[in-house]
UniProtKB/TrEMBL annotation, chain A:
Record has NAD as a keyword: yes
GO cellular component terms attached to this protein's record: mitochondrial inner membrane
Function: Core subunit of the mitochondrial membrane respiratory chain NADH dehydrogenase (Complex I) which catalyzes electron transfer from NADH through the respiratory chain, using ubiquinone as an electron acceptor. Essential for the catalytic activity and assembly of complex I.
UniProt KW Membrane keyword: yes
Domain of life: Eukaryota
E.C. no: 7.1.1.2
Gene Ontology MF annotations: NADH dehydrogenase (ubiquinone) activity
Gene behind this protein: ND2
Name of this chain's protein: NADH-ubiquinone oxidoreductase chain 2
Listed GO biological process terms: mitochondrial electron transport, NADH to ubiquinone
Reactions this protein catalyses: a ubiquinone + NADH + 5 H(+)(in) = a ubiquinol + NAD(+) + 4 H(+)(out)
Subunit text: Core subunit of respiratory chain NADH dehydrogenase (Complex I) which is composed of 45 different subunits. Interacts with TMEM242.
The family this protein is said to belong to: Belongs to the complex I subunit 2 family.
Species this protein is from: Equus caballus
Transmembrane segments: 26-45, 57-76, 96-115, 151-171, 202-220, 241-261, 276-294, 322-345
TrEMBL record, chain B:
Organism (species): Equus caballus
Compartment list: Mitochondrion membrane
This protein's encoding gene: ND6
Enzyme class at the top of the EC tree: translocase
Protein name, UniProt field: NADH-ubiquinone oxidoreductase chain 6
Role of this protein: Core subunit of the mitochondrial membrane respiratory chain NADH dehydrogenase (Complex I) which catalyzes electron transfer from NADH through the respiratory chain, using ubiquinone as an electron acceptor. Essential for the catalytic activity and assembly of complex I.
C-alpha cells in the first residue's frame, strides 16, 4: 500500500478511537466507532488473498451490526430521557441493548464467534492491532456507562467468555487462534469486575494489552504462526524461548509475574462484594487458559520439539529488530511489586 | 387519511426497506431506494423540516443514488434478479411484508402498543402543533448550529468521507 495512504488510514483508526473516548455526545461516539471500523478494513486486508477478504468481511458485518444496535440503544435512551449525554443510561432496555452491542464489539460470549476466525485470517501485525487497539474504544464506553449496566447480563457474559476462552483454545495449534481465545477469556475477566470496580477493568486492560503486545511481537520476530514453527525458535534466537516462557506464564496469571496482578485484584474485589462462588469459578476456568499456554511453553522452551535434522541447523539470516520488545517484556513480567501503586488510581 | 399520513408514509418506508433487503439485483434495490428516499423525505417534511426533506431529494436521490444507478448499470449482469425470479428472494420479501402487515394490524386494532416504546394507536404518529417552535423553525436552526457550534462535527464528517473514499479505493484495488 502507498505509505502516505497507509499512514492516513492508520491515523484515522487512531482518530476514531480517540473520538469515542473523548466525546460526551452519543452521536459522536457512534461516529467514532464507524470511523474506526471503516478505516481498519484496509489494514486487515493488507494482503489481497481470499482469506483476508473473508476475515475483513466477517469483521465488518459483526461490527456494523453492533454499531446498529448501539444506535438503536442511543435512540431509545434519547426517547426516554430527551438528552444525548453519556453519563447515565436512563432506560433498562436501552442499557441491555447497549451492553449487548458493546459485547459484540469486544467479542464476549455469546458474540465471540468472529474473534478466532477473523484473527486467523489476517496477518500477525493486523491481528495485533485488532486484539489490542480495537478493544480500547468499547471498553471505554462500558466504563462510562458502568453504573447503569444490568449486572446479571454482564456477569453471565463474562463467566461464559472465560469458559469459552479457556475451553475453545484447548484444541488449537494456530497461534493467532490461541491469542484470539486468550483475548475472549481476558475480556471476560475485565467485564466481570466492571460493575464492582471499573478501575480494575482499566488495570486489567492495561496489563492485558502489554502482554498481548509482547506475545505478538515475539511471534512476529520469529515469523511463526503455528505451534510447530514456534517450536523452532530455539535454533533461531535461543533467548526468545525464555522470553516466550516468561510472557506466556504471565498471561496465564501466575505469580510472581505481572499477569497475576489483575486476577488477584479482581478476585479480591469480587470477594469484598460477598460473591464467593463466582471468583472461584473464574479462577478454576483460568486454569484452562493456563493449560494451553503451558503446552506452548512445553513445545517451545521446555523441550526440543521433534523435528527433522535439517531444521536443527538453520541459516542465520538477519533477525528482525523490534524496538519496543525489551521494555514490553520487562513490563509484562516484572510489574507485580508495583501493586501498592494502585492506590493512586482511586 | 391526512391525519394518518405519517403512519402511512412510514409503512411504505418499511415496505421498501424490506424490498431491497431481500436482495434483488442492485438495480431494483436502487429503484426501491428511490421510493424509500422520497417517502422518508415526506415524513421529514410532515414534521416541519422542509429544508432537510428537500436536501434528501437533492443530495441523496439526485446525487448519490444517481451515481449508484450509473455504476450499477455498468456492472449489471445479463439476467438481473427480480423479487419473483428467485424463490429465496420472494420468500424473504413476502416474510417481511407479512411481518409489517401483522404489525400494522396490531397497531390499528389495539388501544396501546408497547413494543419498545409505547404509542397509543395510529394517532400517535400525527403532528400536533405545540406552538413552541413558533418564530424560529427548529430544523433550520439546527442546520445553522451545525456550522457554528458544531464545527467539530463538520470536521469529523468531512474527514470520514475523505477516508471513506481512500478506504474504498484501497479495498477494491485487489492487487
Amino acid at each position: 500500500m502507498n505509505p502516505l495512504i497507509f499512514t492516513t488510514i492508520l491515523m484515522t483508526v487512531l482518530l476514531g478511537t480517540m473520538i469515542v473516548m473523548m466525546s460526551s455526545h452519543w452521536l459522536m461516539i457512534w461516529i467514532g466507532f464507524e470511523m474506526n471500523l471503516l478505516a481498519i478494513i484496509p489494514i486487515l486486508m493488507k494482503k489481497y488473498n481470499p482469506r483476508t477478504m473473508e476475515a475483513s468481511t466477517k469483521y465488518f458485518l459483526t461490527q456494523a451490526t453492533a454499531s446498529m444496535l448501539l444506535m438503536m440503544a442511543i435512540i431509545i435512551n434519547l426517547m426516554h430521557s430527551g438528552q444525548w449525554t453519556i453519563t447515565k443510561v436512563f432506560n433498562p432496555t436501552a442499557s441491555i441493548i447497549m451492553t449487548s452491542a458493546l459485547a459484540m464489539k469486544l467479542g464476549l460470549t455469546p458474540f465471540h464467534f468472529w474473534v478466532p476466525e477473523v484473527t486467523q485470517g489476517i496477518s500477525l501485525t493486523s491481528g495485533l492491532i485488532l486484539l489490542t487497539w480495537q478493544k480500547l474504544a468499547p471498553m471505554s464506553i462500558l466504563y462510562q456507562i458502568s453504573p447503569s449496566i444490568n449486572l446479571n447480563i454482564l456477569l453471565t457474559m463474562a463467566v461464559l467468555s472465560i469458559l469459552v476462552g479457556g475451553w475453545g483454545g484447548l484444541n488449537q495449534t494456530q497461534l493467532r487462534k490461541i491469542m484470539a481465545y486468550s483475548s475472549i477469556a481476558h475480556m471476560g475477566w475485565m467485564t466481570a469486575v466492571l460493575v464492582y470496580s471499573p478501575t480494575l477493568t482499566m488495570l486489567n486492560m492495561l496489563i492485558y494489552i502489554m502482554m498481548t503486545l509482547t506475545m505478538f511481537m515475539l511471534f512476529i520476530q520469529s515469523s511463526s504462526t503455528t505451534t510447530l514453527s514456534l517450536s523452532h525458535t530455539w535454533n533461531k534466537t535461543p533467548l526468545t524461548t525464555t522470553l516466550i516462557l516468561i510472557t506466556l506464564l504471565s498471561m496465564g496469571g501466575l505469580p510472581p509475574l505481572s499477569g497475576f496482578m489483575p486476577k488477584w485484584m479482581i478476585i479480591q474485589e469480587l470477594t469484598k462484594n460477598s460473591s464467593i462462588i463466582l471468583p472461584t469459578l473464574m479462577a478454576i476456568m483460568a486454569l484452562l487458559n493456563l493449560y494451553f499456554y503451558m503446552r506452548l511453553t512445553y513445545s517451545t522452551s521446555l523441550t526440543m520439539f521433534p523435528s527433522t535434522n535439517n531444521m536443527k541447523m538453520k541459516w542465520q539470516f538477519e533477525t528482525k529488530q523490534i524496538t519496543l520488545l525489551p521494555p514490553l517484556i520487562v513490563m509484562s513480567s516484572l510489574l507485580l511489586p508495583l501493586t501498592p501503586m494502585l492506590s493512586i488510581l482511586d | 387519511m391526512m391525519t394518518y399520513i405519517v403512519f402511512i408514509l412510514s409503512v411504505i418506508f418499511v415496505v421498501s426497506f424490506v424490498g431491497f433487503s431481500s436482495k434483488p439485483s442492485p438495480i431494483y434495490g436502487g429503484l426501491v431506494l428511490i421510493v424509500s428516499g422520497g417517502v422518508g423525505c415526506g415524513i421529514i417534511v410532515n414534521f416541519g423540516g422542509s429544508f432537510l426533506g428537500l436536501m434528501v431529494f437533492l443530495i441523496y436521490l439526485g446525487g448519490m443514488l444517481v451515481v449508484f444507478g450509473y455504476t450499477t448499470a455498468m456492472a449489471t449482469e445479463q439476467y438481473p434478479e427480480v423479487w419473483v425470479s428467485n424463490t429465496t428472494v420472494m420468500g424473504v420479501f413476502l416474510l417481511g411484508l407479512l411481518m409489517e402487515v401483522m404489525l400494522v394490524l396490531y397497531v390499528l386494532k389495539s388501544e396501546e402498543v408497547g413494543v419498545v416504546f409505547k404509542f397509543s394507536g395510529v394517532g400517535d404518529w400525527a403532528i400536533y402543533d405545540t406552538g413552541d417552535s413558533g418564530v424560529f423553525s427548529e430544523e433550520i436552526m439546527g442546520v445553522a448550529a451545525l456550522y457554528s457550534y458544531g464545527a467539530w462535527v463538520v470536521i469529523v464528517t468531512g474527514w470520514s468521507l475523505l477516508v471513506g473514499v481512500l478506504v474504498i479505493l484501497e479495498v477494491t484495488r485487489g492487487d
